[in-house]
Amino acid sequence: MTDDSKPDIARWVDEGARAIGLPIAPQYRANVILNVERSLAIVQPLLAVELDDELTSLPVYRP
Fold first, then answer.
1. Are 32 and 13 in contact (CB under 8 A)?
2. Rounded to two decimals, what is the model's pTM?
């Protein structure tokens, strides 16, 4: 990370792709990074919600 508030998305993309053996063509790398940044921005409000430790999930409904 470059500082405490902004993660190094390019590094995440590079290391993640390497870890799963997914080659990213150089001409697409910038757009992949942009999409990860957008996804992170979209999910931030959800990640900010604090859940009670006492919550339990409901069972799966199967008709």
1. yes
2. 0.67
Enumerate the domain spans of the chain: 9-47
DSSP string covering 3-61, please?
SSSS--HHHHHHHHHHHHT----HHHHHHHHHHHHHHHHHHHHHHTPPPPTT--PPPPP
Exposure letters 16-41 (e unless 16+ CB within 10 A, then b): eeeeeeeebeeeeeeebbeebbeeee
Per-residue pLDDT tens for 6-18?
Answer: 789 999 999 999 9
Within 13 Å and on the Cβ side, how many CA atoms surround 40?
14
Map residue 2 onto helix, strand or coil: coil
